[in-house]
Amino acid sequence: MNLNAKRQGVTPFSFEKPEEYKSTITELVGLLESRHLAWLDICEGENKAIIFRSNLKKSVFRNIQFGSLLINRCYIDGLCFESCDLRNIFFSNSTVTQPIHLRHCDVAGMRLLNMPLRMFIFEECTGVGQIVIA
């Protein structure tokens, strides 16, 4: 376990995916704090959320135009965005174990605070040169 991540309030988890487990949700709304969001398929719907001190593992966001999304002090492992509009998404102070995949997304205006750009893999995305890094 990364002790520095633990001190910053990021708590990684190590449980395995149950057999035949699949979960699809259409909304992330409000403050989601200290949650284990694992193996989720999040598609369409209203997505205005703050994900704080949570675990995001092997989850996929599909076809979403985010109203706003803040991912702060999270432990991220195997996260993927497909065909999303990421203009109103903010990544901050998170621990990333595997690069975050962005496929066919519009990323112009996505904001990164204390998150290196090398932690993202862009596959056929637009607006990559307009990401705000602070």
Verbal overview:
The chain is mainly β and 134 residues long. It is 4% helix and 43% strand. The chain contains 1 helix and 16 strands. The protein has one helix at 3-7; strands at 23-25, 28-33, 36-38, 40-43, 47-52, 55-57, 60-62, 68-72, 75-77, 80-82, 89-92, 95-96, 100-103, 111-113, 120-123, 132-133. The chain is globular and about 30 Å long. The protein starts with a helix and ends with a strand. 26% of the residues are buried. The mean pLDDT is 84.
% residues in beta strands: 35-45%
Fraction in helix: under 10%
Instruction: Indicate the overall shape.
Output: globular
Mean pLDDT: 84
Q: Helix count, per DSSP? A: 1
Structural class: mainly beta
The strand count comes to: 16
Topology as a string of helices (H) and strands (E):
HEEEEEEEEEEEEEEEE
- Which stretches are poorly predicted, pLDDT < 50 over at least 5 residues? none
Biggest sheet layout: 6 strands, parallel
Order of strands, main sheet, comes to 1-4-7-10-13-15
What is the terminal separation in angstroms? 27 Å
Gyration radius over CA? 14 Å
